[in-house]
C-alpha cells in the first residue's frame, strides 16, 4: 500500500508516453505528481472531500482539519492545498467563517497549490473561484476556469463553478450549458443538480428550477439545499405559505444555516408574520452563529421594509468584501430595488452592473444611463 501511488504515477507516465507517440504531444500535466507519497495523507484527503461535500458547518470544519492533517503528512501535496482552498472558499460562502479570514487563506492555499503543480486543473479552479467571489475579477476568473478546462476538460467542478462567472456576466444560456456539462460528468452529485436549479432560478426559469429540486429530493430527501431553493422559487411566485414551509424544513435539515434563516424571515414577512421575521433578525444579530453575514442581515431589513437599514448592512458587506454581493445583479430578491440610485452604485462598485443586458435581467427595463463598469 505504501507504493500504490508510485504505481499509479508509473502507469500514468507510461500511458502519457504512449499517447505522446500516437498524438505527437504529451498530455498537459501528465508528468506532474498529483498524489502524495504517504498513503495516510491520501486517506485524509478523501475524508476531507467527503466532509466538504456535506455543505454543513461541522462538515466544513472537519474538512479543513483533514486537509491540514494531510499536509502535515505530506507538505508538498498540491492537490490537498487546492482542496483546502476550496474548503476555505465554501466555508465563507456557507457562512461558517468570516470572509476577511477565509478568502485570504483560500487564495494563499490556491497559490501554493499552483506553485507545487501549475498543470493541475484543481489549482486553477480554486484560484478562479477566489477571483470571482473575493476579488470580483470576473474576467480573471473566467480565464482561470478556461485554463483549468484546457488542462482537464472532464473536471466537473471547473464547469460547475465557471457557471457562476457566466451567470453574473449575464450569459445565462452558457451558464446553464456549463452546469449541465458538470452534471453529465458528475451525475450523482446532489450539489451539482442543486446548483443547476439555482442557475435556473437566477435565469427566472422557475419551473425548471422546481423540477431540478425534486430530482435531488428523490435521491436525497434529507439534503437541505433543494428545500431552500424551492422556498426561494415559491417566494418569487408569490406562494408565501409554501415558501415558509420549505424554508422551515431547510432550516431544520441545515442546523439553522444563516442564509436559510434570512430567507425564512423574508418569507415570514411577506406572509404578514413580521414578528417572527423580527425574532429571526434578533437572533442573527445576537452573534449566536460563528459568522454573521451583513448581506443576510440586510436582506431581513429589506423584508421588513427598512430600506435604509438594508443599505447600511450592504455597505458593511461591501467594506468586508463579502462574496455574496456578486449576486446583486441577478438575484430576483433584489428586483424591487433596481431603480434605486444607492443600489445601482453598489452594482457598479461590485462590477455587477456589467449584467445589464436583456438576457441577464429578463423583463427588466433598459437603463441606458447606467455608468460603465469600473
Keywords, separated by commas or semicolons:
18 helices, mainly alpha, 374 residues, globular, Serine Threonine Protein Phosphatase 5, Tetratricopeptide repeat
Protein described:
- The protein is mainly α and 374 residues long.
- Among the domains are: 1-27; 32-120, Tetratricopeptide repeat domain (Serine Threonine Protein Phosphatase 5, Tetratricopeptide repeat); 256-374.
- The protein is built from 18 helices and no strands.
- The protein has helices at residues 4-23, 39-52, 57-73, 78-93, 99-116, 121-133, 138-151, 156-168, 172-185, 190-202, 206-219, 224-236, 240-253, 258-270, 274-285, 294-303, 307-319, 341-349.
- The protein is globular.
- The chain starts with a helix and ends in a 25-residue tail after the last helix.
Which series of helices and strands comes N to C? HHHHHHHHHHHHHHHHHH
Largest sheet: none
What do the pLDDT scores average to? 86
Low-confidence stretches: 24-31, 353-374
First CA to last CA: what distance?
54 Å
Q: Estimate what percentage of residues fall within beta strands.
A: under 5%
H/I helix tally: 18
Residue share in helices?
A: 55-70%
DSSP E strands, number: 0
Rg estimate, integer Å: 21 Å
Structural class: mainly alpha
Shape field: globular
